[in-house]
Amino acid sequence: MPMCAPWRPSSKNIAQGARRRVSQANEPGLLKFVDRRFLGYNVLMALVAAAILLTIAVGSFVFGERTQEQSAEALRAAATDRAALAVLASLVDAETGQRGWLLTGDDDYLKPYTDARTHFPGQLEQFRLQVERLSNDVTIPDPARLEDVARRKFDELAQTLALARTGDRDGAFALVRSDVGITLMDEARAYVAQVLALTDGLRLRRIEQMRASARLLTVLTSLGVVTILVLSVLAILLITHHTRELEVARRDLARSNEALEHRVRDRTRELLGVNAEVQRYAYIVSHDLRAPLVNIMGFTSELETATSRFSTFLHRGGFDRTDPIVADVHEAVDVDIPEALGFIRTSTTRMDALINEILKLSRLGRVPLVPEAIVMETLLRDCIATVQHRLDAGGATAMVISPLPRIVSDANSLNQIFTNLLDNAAKYFDPARPGRIVIRGRTEGANAIFSVEDNGRGIAAGDHERIFELFRRSGAQDRPGEGIGLAHVRSLVRRLGGDIGVVSDGSTGTIFRLILPIDLRPRLKKDTA
């Protein structure tokens, strides 16, 4: 997977490979041991990835269930608050109606009183039911206390009304002025205040627990994603190491078989087959890494759906959004959890793009090169048209300085090379000046030399070689990218028998110089000879 370009055998490599094959009679177990160890590492990493996925799945289920229970408890506490306040409101309404009637004698003022007496039993029963539904984490005072206070209050109100109706209005007003009614209302308010304080504490605890669950889920999933990324890098390093071990084995065995030069041609196809198998290994490992990633994406979608349903329930529940506790619940469901899920989805999307790029590199060596005569001006204008939208967005220009060398090469590879270089230049323009890209070319011996010059922000001297390494980038990481584009360019250039370098002072622009053979056909014939 992390190869800069697929390995292609030179004449010396072919000779060494032939001798390696013949000498397998002397060293029959060496490559088998290497392959078994390589396979064992791959199986181990696959098992670790599966275990991580299972952990994330189980953790998501457990934290989801826990959050649902905690949310339901917070809602039950809010319902208890509303029921207690409804009972208290009935007492207040009854007292208001009684006093209005005593002052005016108008029976219309008695409506709040009569409505309160009618609705009070149901409200009290609803309060009892809500108290019974609360968990054992909070102990609500016996609802019978509130019922007793309310009953005595209604009796006091009824007594004043009865005195007034019999003509003893002085006695009714005397009873109103006494401390009996005030004392009963104070008792009722004190009881409701105690209930509200207890349920507020319960809601705060549940909300904090929900936030803690969301944080733990975020950490768990993030660790899983990071671990899978680490496993991906380890897989890349493992394949690189495995490829190097194969090369070492070829060189060591070749040194003991100098006399077998005549068998070079017969063994070339075998070496190419080994190279193709290495590339297949890279493809298989990258492909297998997608399985746990797809599962993570699926579970993330499930969590998003569950969160959306719960959010809909909260919004339709008619809860008072001005209540700080209810507002906190809404914030946890509408902001905190979606933010965590968004982070997971962003990470998995980046991982998916990374695997796709690795798969692209692994397929590189299997695409045959097709040499043809190429008019470079036409090819480069097509490349510029491909990135024109990015140039237009940045107010930049790109031009081709003619004439350019005409070469015989693979058009598809050249198109990818120059499109990547143009896109890279357009991505890193300096906003302090209008962007400009200039492409030049000349012939030097059997090679054509092309330069792609831009006036962007440049590349630091210490990064001139580093930028061509896989997963490496230069400067501020304020543009999207995985650090694969330039590594892919170098792989393509070297596959065409050329090389690429960079010149930049790190501030006023960058020049990429490509050296390509004018005619690719002799090299291909030499490689297949």
UniProtKB/TrEMBL annotation:
InterPro entries: BphY/WalK/GraS-like (IPR050351), CHASE3 (IPR007891), HATPase_C_sf (IPR036890), HATPase_dom (IPR003594), His_kinase_dom (IPR005467), HisK_dim/P_dom (IPR003661), HisK_dim/P_sf (IPR036097), Sig_transdc_His_kin-like_C (IPR004358). The keyword Protein biosynthesis does not apply. It catalyses: ATP + protein L-histidine = ADP + protein N-phospho-L-histidine. Coiled coil: none annotated. One of its GO terms (molecular function) is phosphorelay response regulator activity. Its EC number is 2.7.13.3. Keywords: Kinase, Membrane, Phosphoprotein, Transferase, Transmembrane, Transmembrane helix. Residues 284-520 form the Histidine kinase domain. The chain crosses the membrane at residues 38-63, 216-239. This is histidine kinase. It comes from Siculibacillus lacustris. The lineage of its organism: Bacteria, Pseudomonadati, Pseudomonadota, Alphaproteobacteria, Hyphomicrobiales.
